[in-house]
């Protein structure tokens, strides 16, 4: 348990109303959106909770909290808006959870240099709407935009739905403000580009709260697009659609959205537009009108050469309207089901083998009733796949076992073909045992070394991201 002495000192330093300990006050902070945490909580077999929740209003409040935690050896767990899906948040009663949501100021929007400065707790949609009033956009559109924070984007190294043109969040970061595990504060990044040694921002982009607490973010912006057009095609095979995507990107075009659905997922997601034997490729083109016109003409030509057939563009409009729906896990549990999505990435030459193996191997797991995939982020060098699965079991224990086996098979199949096990949701607890596939044993040791230098007491979000030695 967090000691009463620590709680008293915190209340003295940052205000008694900013530190809460009652069951009612901390109940919503026991875990994030990870489906397995929700399952065991729904079962009643998971009852851990943070020892106290701290609600800072400023960077100084965060510093005071972290300094006290460092002095007393108290673990600290930063919490954005709780939208993480990999188990990055699972504090126990020994930990202080720092709820960043009260740090929600839009600090400044610089329209000349197209940079916006935010507190880390600003809701993602609030941030986007603030810059949109100035005719600008962040260009970062995760499905969780309305329930995630800009600091959370940094901490999980997120990628949004329009990433093909705008990039992942690492491409948008101008600077970040971080409170280190000893309570010191550092601001990293000040120019459009720098050759000032290793880029230290990347120690914290994707660190998932294990290296420090992001308290402020400056993001580089884009002008709102002049024009937007949709293109949708029926794909005669997965390979045909992937090849067209590769040709479009390697030719030099950058449609912000490129999403390809296999036959199963096309039937489920776009039933009224689907055909029996075809998948679907959906693209959104936006930017200056001249570029959009040239890009759509080129995409049509390459799609035709690849054997794709133009479909109804209303498919893309339908996707735009419904793309940010977030499911309630309990509805599935009550039906004896567990569902999840797993995103990976691989080279163009390896991605079909990953797909084939995952579909076959996850489909063979006892209880699995559905396995399908779509791609949602593409690059000159390769593409991601987003696998969706559902499993059924007679009892909750069986659900957990089936769930973990599905994840295991996706991770192992991806690694077997040289792919990356995490595209944009991060590592958390579910992927932590598999991080060695991406980093290798030496890389994992290097990560532990870096973490040990920054957080020698091991107090920052323990149990998350970094594999045990």
The overall strand count is 18
Count of runs of 4 or more consecutive helical residues: 15
Structural class: alpha+beta
Largest sheet, in brief, is: 7 strands, antiparallel
Q: For the largest beta sheet, what order do the strands appear in spatially?
A: 15-12-14-13-17-18-16
Calculate Rg over CA atoms: 23 Å
Helix content: 25-40%
Mean pLDDT score, rounded? 97
* Shape verdict: globular
- The CATH architecture category of the largest domain equals 2-Layer Sandwich
CATH top-level class of the largest domain: Alpha Beta
How do the strands and helices of this protein lay out in sequence?
Blueprint: H1 4-14, E1 19-20, H2 23-26, H3 35-43, E2 52-54, H4 59-72, E3 76-79, E4 96-99, E5 106-110, E6 115-119, H5 124-132, E7 136-137, H6 150-156, H7 163-166, E8 173-179, E9 185-188, E10 213-220, E11 222-223, E12 227-235, H8 238-251, E13 257-261, H9 263-269, E14 279-287, H10 289-305, E15 309-310, H11 314-322, H12 329-333, E16 337-347, H13 351-363, E17 368-375, E18 382-392, H14 396-416, H15 435-454
Parallel strand pairs: 2-4, 3-4
Antiparallel strand pairs: 1-2, 5-6, 6-10, 7-11, 8-9, 8-10, 12-14, 12-15, 13-14, 13-17, 16-18, 17-18
Helix pairs in contact: 1-4, 8-10, 13-14
């Amino acid at each position: 348990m967090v000691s009463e002495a620590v709680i008293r000192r915190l209340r003295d330093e940052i205000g008694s109303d900013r530190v809460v300990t009652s069951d009612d006050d901390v109940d919503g902070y026991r875990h994030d959106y990870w489906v397995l945490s929700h399952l065991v909580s729904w079962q009643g077999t998971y009852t851990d909770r943070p020892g106290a929740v701290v609600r800072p209003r400023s960077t100084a409040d965060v510093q005071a909290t972290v300094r006290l935690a460092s002095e007393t050896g108290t673990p600290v767990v930063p919490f954005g808006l709780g939208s993480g899906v990999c188990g990055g948040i699972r504090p126990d009663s020994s930990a202080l959870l720092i709820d960043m949501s009260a740090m929600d100021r839009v600090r400044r929007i610089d329209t000349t240099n197209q940079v916006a400065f935010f507190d880390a707790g600003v809701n993602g949609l609030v941030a986007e709407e603030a810059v949109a009033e100035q005719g600008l956009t962040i260009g970062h559109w995760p499905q969780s935009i309305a329930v995630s924070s800009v600091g959370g984007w940094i901490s999980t190294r997120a990628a949004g739905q329009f990433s093909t043109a705008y990039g992942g969040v690492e491409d948008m970061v101008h600077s970040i403000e971080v409170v280190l595990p000893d309570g010191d504060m550092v601001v990293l990044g000040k120019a459009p580009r720098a050759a000032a040694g290793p880029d230290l921002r990347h120690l914290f982009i994707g660190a998932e709260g294990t290296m420090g607490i992001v308290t402020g973010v400056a993001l580089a912006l884009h002008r709102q697009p002049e024009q937007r057009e949709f293109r949708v095609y029926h794909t005669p095979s997965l390979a045909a659609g992937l090849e067209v995507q590769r040709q479009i990107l390697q030719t030099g075009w950058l449609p912000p959205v490129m999403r390809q659905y296999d036959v199963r997922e096309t039937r489920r997601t776009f039933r009224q537009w689907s055909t029996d034997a075809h998948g679907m490729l959906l693209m959104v083109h936006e930017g200056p009108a001249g570029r959009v016109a040239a890009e759509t003409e080129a995409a049509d030509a390459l799609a035709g050469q690849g054997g794709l057939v133009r479909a109804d563009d209303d498919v893309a409009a339908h996707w735009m309207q419904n793309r940010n729906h977030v499911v309630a896990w309990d509805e599935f549990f009550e039906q004896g089901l567990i569902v999840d999505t797993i995103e990976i990435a691989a080279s163009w030459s390896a991605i079909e083998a990953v797909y084939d193996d995952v579909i076959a191997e996850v489909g063979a797991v006892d209880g699995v009733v559905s396995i399908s995939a779509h791609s949602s982020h593409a690059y000159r060098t390769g593409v991601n796949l987003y696998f969706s699965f559902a499993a059924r079991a007679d009892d909750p224990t069986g659900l957990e076992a089936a769930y973990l086996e599905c994840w295991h098979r996706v991770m192992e199949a991806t690694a077997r073909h040289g792919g990356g096990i995490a595209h944009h949701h991060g590592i958390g607890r579910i992927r932590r045992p598999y991080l060695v596939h991406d980093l290798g044993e030496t890389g994992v040791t290097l990560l532990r070394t870096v973490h040990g230098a920054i957080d020698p007491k091991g107090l920052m979000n323990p149990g998350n991201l970094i594999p045990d030695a």
